[in-house]
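Listing S7. Sequence submitted for prediction.
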Amino acid sequence: MIHSKIDSSLMELMLTNGYNNLAANQEEINELNVFPVPDGDTGINMSMTMNGGIKTFSNADTVSKVLSDFSHGMLFAARGNSGVIFSQFIRGFADGAKGVDEMSVSDFVRSMNSGVKQAYKSVAKPVEGTMLTVMREASDFLDTNYKKYDSYEKCFAELLPAMQDSLSNTPQLLPVLKEAGVIDSGGAGLIKVFEGMSMALDDRLLDDYKKEAVNNAPAAVTSLPDNGKMTYGYCTEFILQLMFSDKRAEGFELEKMIEKLETIGDSIVAIRDENIVKVHIHTFTPEVVLAYAHTFGEFLTLKIENMSVQHNQKIKEEVPENKRKKFSIAAVLSGEGIKDYFIGIGTDAIINGGQTDNPSIEEFIKAFDTINAENIIVLPNNSNVILAAKQAAKLYKKSKVFVIETKSIAEGYSALSMMNNSVDTPEELIESMTSNLSYVTTGYITTSTRDCSIGGIEVKKDNYIGLDNETIRSSSDDINETIIGLLKNIPDIVSKEVITGFYGSSVSLEQAEMVKMLIEKEFPFIECGLIEGKMPVYDYIFAIE
């Protein structure tokens, strides 16, 4: 069958097949990592982001409705830089399809153009040689050629090779890709989606990928304290279809619903798209919320979680509701030792995540909801988490949220150690926390996943490698030799005064103490301290100041 237009059911099928192709190949995409370290997560982030959109499908009548729901679902599920950029591309794509019942090729081209504009707008400093380039060049290709296509089959037959050419050229635009001998992982993920969509046109449908396989593991079952006290209430989320056929939804106004919900709970996020309403609220009486919403329509999805037993955020102290703090800190962390240490030096809420496990926008919002403060300062502690943190900050209305762009645990540690709690404004607090960041060097020790040569350093698979931020400084089959080689090759090491190291779950106390002795012997002018971090991926993370 030849398709000159895409209707709503075919659009859902194409996007689902695109997701299945992306998710089935996510490990391949993860491995397209610039550095040969086991922290590639682009495939996971894009899959989990897209999965949030797939879950919204409900046999909508128009392509416009399908894409609008899909975009909203991806927004809240977005994680990692690749996931956030991908979700913004889809947001623009959906905007370009507003009012479209069945999508023609020219409609598709217009949506592509809109998607590219939104994706570029979402990044403060767009970098060519990334998935942005693949998006843009795909859109440019369609602009030039779409008039000759009378079917989507012909369109995709030429579009996909053009996208592959664009992806193959990314190393020429981004030197770090060329040196590492890889193509851009985000662009590769995007092509997997388009390939799956194209396959659906030919009825080459992939088996449903186990959607929960790319989601975080569920929280362990636990219970309330013996006194049964409810501290945080219930996180209640639902998608409601407004029912106009039986006149229940006549006169419905989202603003009035929000006003009513504010009398029942807080942390409200409500979005309406035509006859679909998505609501997130924290309340002690979810039954009242549901009874009220039910007067307007029927529930398509519904989820209620008891926040008093959720274990995925740790709170330093419980602040009485009538004692709202002026400032609170939320940090993205992995490793039980690191979490405990950060709580001890001033962190109020923890968002689980880091390398290979980037939190979603929704997870940030849920963490913010556990904090009773006027101002929330967020430490992403990973360059791949900053975009999601910023998007969450824009969406959150209960408190003012500020994101300090810490790119590592070391930078987050430095920011907390410099925090001046006696200031009056969030701007003054942020100034104190960022005063030393430009002097912080982050050192990593991990294991290589492949043979390569980067920056003149020969790396063998399974050897240790030492990185100074994003520069490989040393590599050896001996971890201690790699650590000393890393520190010796940091350009300004002679000006440093303190090394604070976190050691990972694979390192014993005895091994860590030996490393401390070696560092103190080699660099007697530097004060050195090591902390049990219990983090995955990295054997050591050093904050060098």
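Caption to Listing S7: primary sequence and predicted structure tokens for the chain studied. DSSP finds 20 helices and 18 strands in the chain. The CA atoms of residues 219 and 310 lie 7 Å apart.
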